[in-house]
Structure formats: structure tokens, C-alpha cells
């Protein structure tokens, strides 16, 4: 159980370090990646997932996402540790990853004037703020992620990575899957598809001393938490019926 918690901390840390790192690189002033665009962000997040799966996969199955954990639980997958062990590790790793991104780009926060860009380097936000459709977008994106994972596990007869998680697909296929979700479905909300990835860094944004950062947009924060959880659980239940 301890190994699983630590693996989820380290895997999610790597995910957020590289994922929030690419957003900071693209958005913050005087960064060499400034304004390099959505393709770079989606590619960076796909590779961030690749890194997270590589380091956590052999030890925990690399859930690195509470929506994956809850989706597998809803699917009836027997987890070797409690849901709380997984989610606790994921939230801890996400927060720590965001802190290291803050340190890495320490010189760039003060030269970036727009508070929205500073928050975007930590957490997601909608292109058009419509809570119902924003929520639906997060449900759909996360459903695709978790359903494909469960489909692969089902096709393997439950004999993928043990315990099953994103590592059941393998690091490269899951990276391509997340890359594809971002390119196809990420435009409306920035595709959190992971409650820890959004909430952990949002907490970091709230507590870290970032000059001119503005508020952490807590009014929106429930959407990238409950939307992915809903999508993951629906995928788990539907996968149980189909596979």
C-alpha cells in the first residue's frame, strides 16, 4: 500500500510538472516557448502522461487521476489499495508538481501582467463560461479516456498491468490517447479530465506568493473535479456492462 501511494505521488508529480510546465512555457512572458500554441500544449500534456505512466506503472498501474481510480472501482476492478490511498497520492503529487513549476518559472511570474495567464499555468478554465456545457465537455473527455482504458483491460481479459490502470494501455498508447483528446475535445475547457491535475495546482496557486496573481476562480473549480469524476464513473459502469 505504501508503494502504491508513493508511486501515485511520483507519477502524478511528473504528470503535473511537465503538463503545467508546458502551459507556463507557452503562456508566460519572456519564456522561450511563448505563444507557441495549442499543439505544443497538447503534445506536452501527452508526453507528461507518458512520463507519469512510465514511473508509476510498475508499482500502482499508474492511475495518476482520481477519475481513472473511480472509473476502475465502478467497473469492478479489484484494487490492491483503497480508493483513498490512490486519490491521496494523486492529490499530493499534483500539488507538489505545481509547486516545482512555480519555482522553475520563478522569474517569469513577475514579468507576466495578466492574472488569467498565471492561473492558466496552474489550472484549467473555460473558453466560453457556460457551466452546463463546460461540465458536459469534461464528462465527455474523461469518458473517452477511462472507457478506452477499460476496453483495453477487457480485451486483455483483465491481464494488463497489475493492478490495472493507465499502464494497461502502455505509456505510448495512453500518451497518444490524451494527445488526441486534447486536440479534439480540449478547446472548450482546456481538458482537465483529471480532478487532481486541476484541484492540486489550483490549491498551489491559492497559497503560493505569486505577484499579481488574482483569485483562483473557485467558482469554476467544481467543474474540472465533478465533470471528470462523472465521466470516469459512467465509463466504468458502461464498461462493466459491455466487457
Question: What tags apply to this protein structure?
Answer:
mainly alpha; Glycerol uptake facilitator protein
List the helices and strands and how they pair.
Elements: H1 2-27, H2 38-60, H3 66-75, H4 83-104, H5 106-109, H6 115-120, H7 131-155, H8 171-185, H9 195-207, H10 223-242
Helix pairs in contact: 1-2, 1-4, 2-8, 3-4, 3-7, 3-10, 4-9, 7-8, 7-10, 9-10
Description:
This protein is an all-alpha fold and 243 residues long. The protein has a single domain, classed as Up-down Bundle (Glycerol uptake facilitator protein), CATH 1.20.1080.10. The protein is built from 10 helices and no strands. The chain has helices at 2-27, 38-60, 66-75, 83-104, 106-109, 115-120, 131-155, 171-185, 195-207, 223-242. The longest helix has 26 residues, at 2-27. The chain starts with a helix and ends with a helix. Mean pLDDT is 94; it is low at 158-162.
Short description:
The chain is 67% helix and 0% strand.
Look at the structure and name the CATH superfamily.
Glycerol uptake facilitator protein
Assembly state of the chains shown: single chain
Provide the CATH architecture: Up-down Bundle
Helical fraction equals 55-70%
